[in-house]
């Protein structure tokens, strides 16, 4: 008969496995917070033109239900899902932002994007497709954004 480990050792091993699988101290925790986002967005839309604009917004990074993280802007125009892999959060393909400007409605749909935070600040870079709807017509194109993030608060509290 093989010797059995004492009950307390087995319980400790089971507890460790359970806590590990539930994400206790998960990697996504370090991303949570409120961030100032500054950078540049480039849009190239067929028959509409090339647009360059400064990005200046606030994004909240929260825990997700169907993803590790959810990034939302202060106006509720963007709802970006992300999953943490190592030290980077990968934005999910298909996440989108929609807003209107001077009678034109823009919708950005991600094909790729990353959120990285090597310290208290980091990067939010993304690219994908864009549609612009103006005067009843739909115009298609592409976009990319390069932005810097600076932590300005806790995810649980308003600024």
Largest sheet report: 9 strands, antiparallel
Round the mean pLDDT to the nearest integer and report it.
82
Stretches where pLDDT is under 50 for at least 5 consecutive residues are: 1-25
What Rg do the Cα atoms give?
A: 21 Å
Helix content: 10-25%
For the termini, the CA-CA separation is 63 Å
- Report the count of strand segments: 9
How many helices does DSSP assign?
Answer: 1
The secondary-structure element order is HEEEEEEEEE
Strand content: over 45%
Shape, principal axes of CA atoms: elongated
Alpha-beta content class: mainly beta
Short structural description:
10% of the residues lie in helices and 60% in strands.
Describe the structure.
By secondary structure, the protein is mostly beta strands. The protein has one helix and nine strands. Strands 1, 2, 3, 4, 5, 6, 7, 8 and 9 form a nine-stranded antiparallel sheet that branches. The longest helix is centred in the first third of the chain and has 16 residues, at 7-22.
List keywords for this structure.
about 160 residues
Task: Provide the fold topology.
Blueprint: H1 7-22, E1 33-45, E2 49-63, E3 69-73, E4 78-85, E5 88-91, E6 96-101, E7 104-116, E8 121-134, E9 137-153
Antiparallel strand pairs: 1-2, 1-9, 2-3, 3-4, 4-5, 4-6, 5-7, 6-7, 7-8, 8-9
């Amino acid at each position: 008969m093989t010797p059995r480990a004492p009950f307390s050792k087995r319980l400790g091993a089971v507890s460790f496995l359970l806590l590990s699988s539930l994400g206790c101290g998960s990697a996504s925790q370090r991303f949570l917070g409120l961030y100032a986002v500054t950078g540049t967005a480039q849009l190239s839309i067929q028959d509409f033109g090339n647009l360059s604009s400064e990005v200046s917004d606030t994004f909240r990074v929260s825990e997700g239900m169907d993803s590790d993280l959810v990034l939302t802007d202060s106006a509720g125009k963007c709802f970006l899902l992300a999953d943490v892999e190592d030290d980077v959060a990968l934005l999910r393909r298909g996440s989108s932002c929609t807003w209107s400007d001077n009678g034109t409605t823009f919708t950005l749909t991600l094909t790729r994007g990353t959120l990285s935070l090597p310290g208290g600040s980091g990067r939010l870079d993304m690219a994908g497709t864009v549609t612009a709807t103006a005067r009843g017509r739909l115009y298609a194109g592409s976009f990319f954004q390069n932005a810097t993030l600076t932590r300005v608060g806790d995810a649980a509290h308003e600024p």
